[in-house]
Design brief:
Layout (H helix, E strand, L loop, with lengths): L23 H14 L5 E6 L9 E6 L1 H7 L3 E5 L6 H4 L1
Antiparallel strand pairs: 1-2, 2-3
């Protein structure tokens, strides 16, 4: 099976907390722009659900109709490592 995937070097540009090629807010913006171009309803919205008591940012992503059909669930959640920023958790 032939693949169109090409692997290239990826130099790290953001290294607070973890090494990444983009800042967290750039990643969120980049993904949202691409999802908006699709003729599919994948991400309905993202909501922060933690209370701040443990200082661990927690978000839940509410799936759109197309994503729900594919995954069989209406939401996904993510948390960042302790002492991480809410921008990274999102």
């Amino acid at each position: 099976m032939k693949s169109n995937i090409e692997i290239k070097d990826s130099f790290k540009k953001y290294s607070h907390d973890q090494d990444k090629t983009r800042r967290p807010e750039q990643t969120v913006s980049w993904v949202r722009e691409r999802l908006a171009r699709l003729d599919m309803n994948i991400l309905a919205r993202t909501v922060r659900i933690d209370t701040g008591r443990l200082d661990i940012p927690v978000y839940i992503s509410l799936c759109g109709e197309d994503a729900t059909r594919f995954t069989g669930t209406k939401n996904r959640w993510a948390r960042a490592p302790r002492l991480s920023s809410p921008k990274r958790a999102r």
